[in-house]
Input
Amino acid sequence: MLSKASKSLIVLDSANREQKVWAIVADGKIILHKINRSTDLIRSLDQLLKSISQPIKLVAGFAVCSGPGSFSALRGGIALLNSLAWALDKPIYNIKTPLETKEIISLWQKLNKTKKPHFTKPIMPFYGREPNITIKK
Output
């Protein structure tokens, strides 16, 4: 259970096609949860939140890796967290991959200093190259 004074930050690194990493930062601690590519992102987030007894509506903000990485992996993770941030009117931040503890804690501290954080703009994916989704003539 989290302290009532602390705000929590949900972090997702979905840039790697083979493994995704969820993190929750609360009370200054990071809880990591690694999942394989076939695991449902929404179901795994729900399990992670249940493990710390926190409903999604009490999450204070989100952070997601924008790339570079796999087109499908980035698109799914970014779309999910952009949607949650928008629907809940919570801020969303861009992070680097692989997840770095200092960067995550720094974002969490920034979030905890903000009086009324809210959604400002979505995170856009960076694939590292042009998408290879059409056949060249």
